[in-house]
Amino acid sequence: MTEVSSLTGRLLVATPALADPNFDRAVVLLLDHDEEGSLGVVLNRPTPVGVGDILQGWAELAGEPGVVFQGGPVSLDSALGVAVIPGGAGPLGWRRVHGAIGLVDLETPPELLAAALGSLRIFAGYAGWGPGQLEDELSQGAWYVVESEPGDVSSPAPERLWRAVLRRQRGELAMLATYPEDPSLN
User: Fold this and answer.
1) CA dihedral in degrees (28, 137, 18, 168; nearest 10)?
2) The pLDDT of residue 171
């Protein structure tokens, strides 16, 4: 088996050619990537469901737009909390994934994390890939892999995140930010 270079903490940005409707113009934050597979959350799929409707204690801590995001097509009945904690060591109930970004144990009393949180998003479900599956998709050109920034997790305009992430890249990727929703209308 070939060694897998970890992409944990990086973003997968769907290419215009990616045909899967679950990932059309998706921006996925990889929370785990190793030889056993990959797991991430789609950062730009807000739902109409308020955080308080399913996790009352976390509603006040969730960033705008205060709704649950569809993290991906897998396990939509489960919830993941992703938070940015500025500074050094994080509080009890938070596990660093990459830089200031980490996972929140939603069983932890929210008041234990409240003072440390820079931002928090709640995701229903996740995106998952088995061993080698993501690498196959990358080799087929389905995703661009780019560096994440802590602000990506809490973007106040998630509907514009795909374009914003591409725009901050260099060269050809920045130009793709202007790619039309439906190229046949050009």
Assistant:
1) 50
2) 84
DSSP for 38-105 reads EEEEETT-EEEEEHHHH-GGGTTTSPTT-EEEE--SEEEEEEEEEEE--SSSPPTTEEEEETTEEEE-
For residue 49, give the nearest of 21, 25, 77 by alpha carbon.
Answer: 77
Tell me the C-alpha distance between 73 and 75, whole Å: 7
Which of left, alpha, beta for 81 (phi over 0: left; psi -120 to 50: alpha)?
A: beta
Q: Choose among 128, 119, 121, 7: nearest CA to 72.
A: 128
Identify whether the C-beta of residue 5 lies closer than 8 Å to the C-beta of residue 138. Answer: no
Q: Would you say 84 and 118 are in contact if contact means Cβ atoms under 8 Å apart? A: yes
**How many whole angstroms separate alpha carbon 32 and alpha carbon 107?**
20
Q: What percent of the chain has pLDDT over 70?
A: 93
